[in-house]
């Protein structure tokens, strides 16, 4: 067994390559100068004796929205604490998975009370959302002054938007409230109620996807802090000026190009670089190479696909098993009719519902949309129209492993192991 602590480190500070903001937060975002200056101007009235504007921040995942809003609100807090007599309180709540306004309000009451009393308190239980809103108003009034409420991932509020409607309009004696809503869900953003849009989104700040050049610079700055013998020539902090004894020259351009061609997601680019560095360490290598990046990408893709398969419904998993059996018996690709025969046998074996062939075909198409199956449209012969032929587009062992985790289906997958 390997001993801990014996690894020849390529790292100077391993946490800097952790994309989670709780572990490491960058102190500068030069790629977001324009967006940060729009947030700045919406918050500036506070420094001029006025009230903050509400802001709606929108953009795809991993674009620095959360970290950008954090940096600006922290900068304002510092100004308020050290250079002014403005009383400023910033409350931050993630609405991820909240579902209802009630959950967001309960989290806000907890945060407000912690700010008010300076100690940890329990989330309230029992009151209705209207009562919670009154409780929150009382707490905010007691805190007083300027209060900024950051609601991250507001698309997590799915079922009722009460809090998004009420908060930006709240009128509480001796308090000025500014709400900053953040979302990466285009559909949610587009479907927002017009009243909410006009009050919450009085200032809209859009974070558009990074291109490969920007991702290169972001990665270069992270690498210079995270890795040993890696630094900027002449203190010029861009990828052109990065020197490293640890990274081979093509590593950062490759990570940036791969992430850039997918979604321009900085989180994904950083995760790719850190996985490549970990693989180099596993190999006992002192240098991270292009092949570590390619292997890291494969690993990450497998992990993502594996998670996707595990999260599928039982009917889609059974549909996937029909394609697996077809693959392993050398019959793939097969059409719906052949796969449906396998499906009926499987559902009977495990006592699951057997859907009609049309519904089964929908499950196959869903899997093809998720790139787990490949659906190829072919002619059935003269005058007989087209049919879809399906085959697995992922590793059969991965399917056996992930579907086999489901107890109800392990009796089928065991046969393939
Ligand atoms: N310009 C940048 N410079 C350095 N790091 C960045 C930059 N933009 C994003 N990051 C990093 O990328 C990761 C994701 O950033 P962040 O959480 O702010 O994205 P987001 O747009 O809020 O994404 P989501 O919508 O998924 O929450 C973080 O580790 C962050 O530090």
TrEMBL record:
Name its species: Natrinema hispanicum
Q: Name one Pfam family in it.
A: WHD_Cdc6
Q: Which keywords annotate this record?
A: ATP-binding, Cell cycle, Cell division, DNA replication, Nucleotide-binding
Q: What does this protein do?
A: Involved in regulation of DNA replication.
Which residues are in the Cdc6 C-terminal domain?
320-403
Which parts of the sequence are annotated with region: Disordered? Answer: 1-30
Q: Which family does it belong to?
A: Belongs to the CDC6/cdc18 family.
Listed binding positions for ATP are 210, 222
Q: Which InterPro entries match?
A: AAA_22 (IPR049945), Cdc6_C (IPR015163), Cdc6_lid (IPR055237), ORC1/CDC6 (IPR050311), Orc1/Cdc6_arc (IPR014277), P-loop_NTPase (IPR027417), WH-like_DNA-bd_sf (IPR036388), WH_DNA-bd_sf (IPR036390)
Q: Which GO terms describe its molecular function?
A: ATP binding; ATP hydrolysis activity
Under the heading PANTHER family, the entry gives:
CELL DIVISION CONTROL PROTEIN 6-RELATED, ORC1-TYPE DNA REPLICATION PROTEIN
> GO terms for biological process?
cell division; DNA replication
Name of this chain's protein: ORC1-type DNA replication protein
């Amino acid at each position: 067994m390997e001993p801990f602590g014996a690894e020849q480190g390529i790292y100077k500070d391993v946490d800097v390559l952790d994309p989670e903001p709780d572990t490491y937060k960058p102190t500068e975002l030069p790629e977001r100068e324009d967006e940060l200056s729009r947030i700045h101007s919406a918050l500036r009235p506070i420094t001029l004796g006025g009230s903050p504007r509400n802001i709606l921040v929108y953009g795809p995942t991993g674009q620095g929205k959360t970290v950008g809003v954090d940096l600006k609100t922290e900068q304002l807090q510092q100004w308020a604490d050290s250079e002014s007599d403005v009383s400023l309180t910033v409350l931050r709540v993630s609405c991820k998975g909240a579902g209802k306004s009630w959950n967001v309000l309960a989290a806000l009451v907890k945060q407000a009370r912690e700010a008010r009393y300076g100690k940890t308190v329990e989330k309230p239980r029992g009151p209705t959302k209207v009562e919670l809103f009154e409780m929150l108003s009382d707490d905010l009034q007691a805190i007083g002054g300027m209060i900024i409420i950051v609601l991250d991932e507001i698309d997590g509020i799915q079922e009722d938007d009460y809090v998004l409607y009420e908060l930006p309009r709240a009128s509480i004696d001796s308090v000025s409230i500014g709400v900053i809503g953040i979302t990466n869900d285009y559909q949610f953003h587009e479907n927002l109620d017009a009243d909410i849009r006009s009050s919450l989104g009085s200032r809209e700040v859009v974070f558009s996807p990074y291109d490969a050049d920007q991702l290169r610079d972001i990665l270069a700055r992270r690498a210079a802090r995270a890795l040993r013998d890696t630094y900027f020539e002449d203190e010029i902090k861009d990828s052109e000026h990065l020197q490293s004894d640890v990274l081979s020259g093509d590593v950062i351009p490759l990570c940036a190009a791969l992430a850039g061609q997918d979604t321009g997601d900085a989180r994904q680019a950083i995760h790719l670089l850190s996985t490549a560095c970990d693989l180099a360490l596993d190999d006992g290598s002192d240098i991270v190479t292009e092949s570590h990046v390619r292997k890291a990408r494969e690993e990450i893709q497998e992990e993502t696909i594996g998670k996707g398969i595990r999260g599928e419904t039982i009917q889609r998993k059974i549909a996937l098993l029909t394609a697996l059996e077809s693959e392993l018996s050398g019959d793939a690709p097969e059409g719906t009719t052949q796969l449906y025969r396998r499906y009926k046998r499987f559902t009977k074996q495990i006592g699951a519902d057997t859907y009609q062939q049309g519904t089964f075909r929908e499950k196959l198409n869903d899997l093809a949309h998720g790139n787990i199956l490949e659906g190829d449209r072919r002619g059935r012969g003269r005058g007989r129209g087209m049919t879809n032929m399906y085959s697995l587009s992922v590793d059969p062992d991965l399917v056996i492993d992930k579907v086999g985790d489901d107890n109800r289906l392990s009796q089928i997958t065991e046969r393939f192991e």
